[in-house]
Write a structure and sequence with these properties.
metal-binding, eleven-stranded mixed sheet, alpha+beta, Carbonic Anhydrase II, lyase, binds zinc ion, about 280 residues, zinc, transmembrane helix, globular
Length: about 280
């Protein structure tokens, strides 16, 4: 009698268990909390929290350099500690800038606003090797520091050689006059990653985008976002360019903070010279 009672209870429990299991919607996955973390490769990373810079290495096996690399970017540039002047003069002689106008297609890739050059006519010559300008994107606040100081924003102008080597010109952006050169781009900034890239009507004059003074700090570092690939030739212009508060706020209303923390210098030399 007692046994039957126990069997009955166990049977009811089993039925409740089975019904309960199928009643739960097992298709419901954890929601994607932040679509801005989605990259073109479908791997999630972000600038804060569980997929933030400290975890980039763990997000994907291809991102190991983000955690183990020793030539990483960005860095703090201490103006007084720039290296051997003679070497800097030699470097300066090997580098020239071939900038004219470029038409850009602007998109929001979830991590930044990216303006891709629709032509490959602008370039940076390093040791007679051509690095073609492929695009510009932006960070808020700046990624690099000068003497421990951040700027409001930083623009990165990407150049790539035929062999896939990278050279990046970094422009600090500080609050000031409205930037006319980037005005149309800013009017067309896609606020949402789902929007198609917008091709700007007017060319951007790259010579006019750069600051008057062409003093640069050069060092070898990495991509500042996953996969943090090393061997990137960095040229950071000392004189900041300006954007109005309205322009800066327009960007930070979309990307409040998209800068990687400062990385260890690890004995690397930083050279200072003028870009021609
Ligand atoms: Zn960048």
């Amino acid at each position: 009698m007692r046994k039957n009672y126990i069997y009955a209870i166990l049977s009811i429990a089993l039925v409740i268990g089975i019904v309960g299991y199928f009643a739960i919607d097992t298709t419901e996955q954890a929601p994607v909390e932040d679509k801005e973390q989605l990259t073109a490769t479908g791997v999630y990373w972000s600038y804060t929290g569980e997929t933030g810079p400290e975890q980039w290495m763990n997000v994907n096996s291809n991102y190991e350099a983000c955690g183990r690399g020793e030539l990483q970017s960005p860095i703090n540039i201490e103006i007084k500690e720039t290296a051997d002047q003679q070497e800097a003069v030699k470097l300066a002689e090997q580098i020239s800038l071939n900038y004219d106008q470029a038409i850009f297609a602007v998109e929001n890739n979830g991590h930044t606003i990216e303006a891709n050059s629709t032509t490959l006519e602008n370039s940076l010559l390093i040791n007679d090797k051509e690095y073609k300008l492929t695009g510009i994107h932006f960070h808020s606040p700046s990624e690099h520091q000068l003497n421990g100081q951040y700027f409001d924003m930083e623009a990165h102008l990407y150049h790539e050689s035929e062999e896939g080597k990278l050279a990046v010109i970094g422009l600090f952006i500080q609050s000031g006059e409205e930037n006319q050169i980037l005005a149309e781009m800013w009017d067309e900034i896609p606020t949402d990653g789902k929007e198609a890239a917008k091709i700007l009507k007017n060319p951007v004059d790259l010579q006019l985008l750069l600051p008057e003074q062409k003093s640069v700090y050069q060092y070898v570092g990495s991509l500042t976002a996953p996969p943090c690939t090393e061997g990137v030739n960095w040229f950071i212009l000392e004189q900041p360019i300006e954007m109005s508060d309205k322009q800066i706020n327009r960007f930070s209303s979309i990307f409040l903070q998209n800068n990687r923390p400062i990385q260890e210098l690890n004995g690397r030399d930083v050279y200072k010279f003028n870009l021609n």
